[in-house]
Each structure stands twice: as C-alpha cells, then as structure tokens.
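call fold(seq) -> tokens
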Amino acid sequence: MKKNPGVRLMLILLLMAVFFLPLYPTVQWFSMDKALRDKAELKYENIEEYNKLSYEEQKKIDEAKKIKDRSINLG
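ret:
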C-alpha cells in the first residue's frame, strides 16, 4: 500500500495549527502598542484614572486586558 504524501502534509499542517493556536494571543499582546499594554496592565491599580477615560478608550483597554489574560506569561 502506497503512502500518500499529501495526506501526511495536511495532517502535519493541521497539527501545527492546533499547537500554535494558543500562541496567537501572546503574539497579539506583544505586537500591541506599548502605551496600550501599559494601560491594560495598570487598569486595576489606577481605577480612578481608568474611570476618567472615554468609553472608547475603556473598551480598548478592556479588550487589551482580555488578550493579556489569554496570553502566555513569558519568563
């Protein structure tokens, strides 16, 4: 019985996608603007300043915080 290299290649690519999928939030986090990352990390330490921001900025910070929570802690 001959082995089909196309099936093997598709299986390898599928497994690579499954194993690298959890890294996507980490890549998003570290490719994000440094100022936004700093604001997301300090959100709960400076709640008064966070409440003074506009709704759009709060939403951006909340989304960045969600990405941070899903990312892998390096180091």
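Helices lie at 5-20, 24-31, 34-41, 47-52, 55-70.
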